[in-house]
Amino acid sequence: MRCLAAWDETHDVRSFLLAPEDGGRIAYSPGQFITIRVPGPDGELVERCYTLSSSAAGERTATITVKRKEGGVLSGHLHATLTPGTVIEAFGPSGQFGPTKADDKYLLLSAGSGVTPMLSMVRTAVDLGIDLDAVFIHAARTEADIIAAHDLAALARRLPNLRIVTVASRANGAWDGERGRIDAHALARLVPDLAQRTVLCCGPEGFMKAMHEAALALGVPDSRYLEESFDFGEVDVDVPADGRLFRITFARSGKSFDCPENLTILQAAKLAGIPMASSCAKGVCGTCKCLKTSGSVDMNHGGGIRDREVARGFILPCSSRPQTDIVLDR
């Protein structure tokens, strides 16, 4: 995809307008993400998932919104180098996070850059004329950290059944919005009919854990609580001194390595120094998907692979632990 434009949302968040390099269409649903692959600061290829923040009603362009993370491998590099005219590799869109019924009632909960899928949902509703019934609560550190603040206000004016609440945990004296942190008491006050709503939540792991617990306490069943996160910290693994080892073989390259039964195939490949394309490492994005030609695995994924693909023999190495020796079509 080619970058057409880039602009600052806040002091550490930047948005990038992208379009297929061949001028073709890009179709996606609000809440979906793309995986991009670009050279990192050291020249090595790095892959990351970014939720599309633009309206899904468009067919020619899409926008990603990237928060620069302290010590992050890619985010700061993108801020500095992804400029108009730059071409990057992109895969997808992927993911199943988003509204499932247009006539349902929703609570959209986000913190930090977790606002991006919610922006796509609301922008899409405006563009398609959907009367979205939603309370949209977004948390940020200060008022200066609220992504797309002016756009949020404009969107609220165009959707009569949308109520947007912004919360600043460290607001200054002039802030007239909500203050502090969102907890069960705040949710009960801000959303009296919460138990009747489907909750969509996106943000840092700690925020989502707290919101999940609060929603459950206020009567929202797990079946109506959905969340998404791209917190790609390194996975710490313990390799047992004993236990079974299974041989993983890449049929095309001829590479092979041993995988302890308690590790995923992706974890074992990294320990063996064998690169495998991956991004979320949680079974969400589908980047690592490949065909298994022999063997059996225990796969617990997060929606990054379809049932029909599993039936054809595809697996997600990031979510698959071997039960026998495995051969992959790689």
TrEMBL record:
GO MF assignments: 2 iron, 2 sulfur cluster binding; metal ion binding; oxidoreductase activity
Domain 2Fe-2S ferredoxin-type residues, every copy: 246-330
Domain of life: Bacteria
UniProt keyword annotation of Oxidoreductase present: yes
Span of domain FAD-binding FR-type: 1-100
Coiled coil regions, renumbered to chain: none
InterPro entries assigned to the protein according to its UniProt record, in alphabetical order: 2Fe-2S_ferredoxin-like_sf, 2Fe-2S_ferredoxin-type, 2Fe2S_fd_BS, Beta-grasp_dom_sf, Cbr1-like_FAD-bd_dom, FAD-bd_FR_type, FNR_nucleotide-bd, MRET
Pfam families recorded: FAD_binding_6, Fer2, NAD_binding_1
Keywords: 2Fe-2S, FAD, Flavoprotein, Iron, Iron-sulfur, Metal-binding, Oxidoreductase
Keyword Acyltransferase: no
Cofactor(s) it depends on: FAD
Family of the protein in this entry: In the N-terminal section; belongs to the FAD-binding oxidoreductase type 6 family.
Entries under PANTHER family matching the protein: NADH OXIDOREDUCTASE HCR (PTHR47354)
Protein name, as recorded: Hybrid-cluster NAD(P)-dependent oxidoreductase
